[in-house]
From TrEMBL:
GO cellular component: plasma membrane
Top-rank taxon, per record: Bacteria
Lineage: Bacteria, Bacillati, Bacillota, Bacilli, Lactobacillales
Organism from which the protein derives: Liquorilactobacillus uvarum DSM 19971
Protein name from the UniProt record: Branched-chain amino acid transporter
Transmembrane among keywords: yes
Key word Transport present: yes
Length: 234
């Protein structure tokens, strides 16, 4: 590994270590859950590698033991992962890179990789593209390896898995607070909290996420248009 790649890898490893901790718990819980549903370790390993969407994988695990209904799976997938549409829009500029890395970055953009790659501005001596690539690669490795371990240990480890899912929630709270402290203007953070909270109360947990994303996007489009018009008039 040359100096450019090595430096980017070390910085990415440092940034993703907290995510590794969260993935270790949740991934193993997922692997053990799959074992409890009657699947050997190959199933969670392959699903973690190809689907790479934690919340969806838990849902798919439950659907696999019921009658085959591809339309329901498609609908649930679109609802659960609808937030990735907005992740993609936010990363259009950063992921506009040449070569094969672009396609892997798009495929591997989970919540955690998006959070780190979007919020982190690497030092000038670190190549940003390689940094984003290694962040994505390391996060996928953490998830696949943890899921495999959970599947392997599922037959010998028995304990109550309830509550482990809060590990990732806690991680996102930490990432949000860190971003909040570094913001010069808190409009985006406060807008996200307010809109999501109102729609959660009004619509319930099944529908609030995609509609919150749409409404927040609309608000920012209006705000940006107003800013541009104000700037042009001046």
């Amino acid at each position: 590994m040359d100096t450019v790649k090595s430096t980017a890898f070390k910085f990415a490893l440092k940034k993703t270590l907290p995510i590794m901790t969260g993935f270790l718990f949740i991934g193993m819980a997922y692997g053990m859950y799959m074992h409890q549903e009657g699947f050997n370790f190959l199933y969670p390993t392959l699903m973690a590698f190809t689907i790479f969407a934690g919340s969806l994988e838990f849902v798919i695990a439950n659907l696999l033991i019921h009658s085959f209904d591809p339309l329901s799976v498609l609908f649930l997938t679109l609802i659960i992962n609808s937030r990735h549409l907005f992740y993609g829009i936010s990363m259009l500029e950063k992921y506009n890179v040449a070569g094969w890395k672009k396609y892997y970055l798009i495929f591997g953009m989970c919540d955690e990789s998006f959070s780190v790659n979007y919020a982190t501005d690497p030092p000038k001596d670190i190549d940003q593209v390689w940094f984003m690539f290694y962040v994505t690669c390391l996060n996928q490795f953490y998830w696949v390896f943890s899921s495999m371990l959970g599947g392997l240990f599922g037959s010998i480890i028995h304990f109550n898995l309830k509550g482990l899912s809060f590990v990732m929630t806690a991680l996102f709270i930490v990432l949000f607070v860190d971003q909040l402290l570094r913001e010069n203007n808190h409009f985006s953070s406060l807008c996200g909290i307010l809109v999501s909270s109102i729609l959660l109360i009004v619509l319930g947990k099944e529908l609030f996420l995609p509609l919150s994303m749409l409404l927040i996007t609309g608000i920012f489009c209006i705000k940006e248009n107003w800013r541009v018009k104000t700037h042009e008039s001046n």
